[in-house]
Amino acid sequence: MIKWDSATKRRRLPRVANVTDAVRQWWQKRLNLKSLGGGWKRFVSLFLVGVSLSVAIASCGGESTNTPGSSTPGAKTKDAQITLVSYAVTRAAYEKIIPQFTAKWKQERNQNVTFTQSYGGSGSQSRAVIDGLEADVVALALELDTQKIEQAGLIQPGWQKEAPNNAILTKSVAALVTREGNPKGIKTWSDLAKDGVQVITANPKTSGGARWNFLALWGAVAETGGDDAKALDFTSKVFKNVPVLPRDAREASDVFFKQGQADALINYENEVILAGLNGQKLPYVVPDVNISIDNPIAVVDKNVDKHGTREVAEAFVQFLYTPEAQREFAKVGFRPVNSTVAKEFTKQYATVKNLFTVQDLGGWGEVQKKFFDDGAIFDKIQAQIGKS
Question: Which of UniProt's keywords are assigned here (predicted)?
């Protein structure tokens, strides 16, 4: 029955099952309830009949809503939303790749897919996903960052086998950016250890990119016949020439370019190429002994299962290995893993005579323990040169 509200001197609507407060308040604002009088019950009944008819029409109509990924001809599928979390310098490539994928998926599956994208430092992105950023797909700068997400229980073990090429999506190498005219004549890793030369690199304890830099220095000796003692001596000399250790690659670039410090900056080749494409021609050299900077991709199992997006997320990962997607990565400086596309862009990359990998150094588990854990080799180098 309709009750009288003594505070407002107006009739109150009954709380009808399945009619929310918001609906009740909407009608209350728009109707003169006094004018309905005893007919209110009939109005409510008619209203609910109308709702039931609407539901019936939607259920029996020509269009139906199916689960994500349904390919029933003529069916209207539920839209899907994918969250992609990646590191900063991949943005330019994904801005071109994502529209290609969504158009292809719409044509083949009749499903609209939208992407939420997040870009930042690889280590920071890894922590954000662990702390609750619900990524469906993560494309990070190094496998170690992806392994941390796995260790947090969000990615199932064996993810490396779930995508082509052991889940390595793109590659790069380390480059040495110099001052205009290269006044210090820096051409090889050994030049960075000379007296009077200053080098900028980020801190390997806080930067994934800087770990690649460190391993490139170490491997320049260890992968050309030198033992650990010689590699330690050389790497220590280079870090003695490092005046500051910025937290990440972006800060390192600011120190070198904006603050004008040092004679050389260790950077990714793809970043240097991208800068050139954007009109900033940087003098640089690529040492012919170098490390393969391998960038992995993975589906975040816990999140795709929660969101119901596994099929489309896995399809997106597979699409990233196609020639059309690999070309977009190559256009912004990455070395493609697709051999056909790699041949198309051969002239864009310097030749590397001796290319080694993290696996040659023992794999990320061994590398982390040996070099970057607390009290490991990097900390010992810092203590030795008085910068700890």
Answer: Periplasm, Signal, Transport
